[in-house]
């Protein structure tokens, strides 16, 4: 079996969650099994859609710069939110008004939604595999006292570089070295429960999110387009399962998985056990159980990363690296093209699977109407 070296693997995971073999029972009516197993928590609620519509509209305003010069709405009068004022206290690094509004939307949405569903509200009440996933995705920096929950395909390699520089393991972020995703990194799972509790309570906690479909497409293009080990392991399996006439074929390269085939595979996978590159961000970072102080966006990476570095008190000369030259961005057009190759029926099942990533982080659902796809 080929070893999988995913670009942002969690410690000790390369053989387990990262490269979890497709579940054996999948052949037997997998989808219905999953439906029964899925918690109602993942089903879209009326509230979810209200939130999407609301935040989608706001995001549109933000995109168009229409909120410049407007003030953030006053917080609800509730004791928990009195720290609201401190955000604009002089000591706080400047973060532009749009980013601030986005944070506010995310905070409010998370508060409203996490209260609604019977989701895991504490690290200690969630199932043990879920907790393991979470703790293996939170990186710790002791010197600057922060926790970073990394999400694969959301600039996590560059954040790991930054963490290594901050802990003194790397001279600077531009060092031309193949990134080692385990060495010199400290994971929350390395600590005892008491130490974990203490850090969750007192350290600055942040994560970065990305438009869910762009993240999936990025994973698809990278893993199936470029990484041999993934083609062998996942690609071959996907082709056997979903391509007519391939079920019993002896040798399948798995290097030509189509995006619709990948989507069909995702629909049959359990979000709590998926490979981390396509596991919903919600399951990786558990924003209902961990109160993140800052949720940055991949779409505004430069500004948001600079804010975090300033906020944790990193030395001035530590800057977030620019995109590597080989990086292939997912453009709006590319995303549109790929999404429109997926049959409507599959898309209608796929979006609910990632609904918490859309709604909690304020991403509007993509327009995948036949009308739109005709253009
Ligand atoms: C969002 O919530 C976090 C955690 O409670 C808090 O630290 C942060 O200041 C809040 N941000 C905004 C913009 O309200
Ligand atoms: C989707 O796109 C089509 C065609 O451009 C447009 O008519 C429709 O109003 C859009 N729907 C939404 C929900 O934006």
Automatic annotation (TrEMBL):
Which sequence ranges are marked TM in the entry?
41-62
Which Pfam families does this entry report, sorted A to Z?
Sulfotransfer_2
Q: What EC number is given for this enzyme?
A: 2.8.2.-
- Bias (Basic and acidic residues) occurs at 81-93
Q: What InterPro entries does the entry give?
A: Carb_sulfotrans_8-10, Sulfotransferase
| Gene Ontology CC terms, in alphabetical order | Golgi membrane
GO BP terms, alphabetized: carbohydrate biosynthetic process; dermatan sulfate proteoglycan metabolic process
Q: Which UniProt keywords apply?
A: Carbohydrate metabolism, Glycoprotein, Golgi apparatus, Membrane, Signal-anchor, Transferase, Transmembrane, Transmembrane helix
Q: What class of enzyme is it?
A: transferase
Question: Major place of localization?
Answer: Golgi
Localization (cell): Golgi apparatus membrane
Stretches assigned to coiled coil: none
The GO molecular function terms of this record are: sulfotransferase activity
At the top level, the lineage of the source is Eukaryota
Write out the similarity annotation. Belongs to the sulfotransferase 2 family.
Q: Report what the protein is called.
A: Carbohydrate sulfotransferase
Which organism is this entry from?
A: Silurus meridionalis (Southern catfish)
- Which lineage do the record's taxonomy fields give for this organism? Eukaryota, Metazoa, Chordata, Craniata, Vertebrata
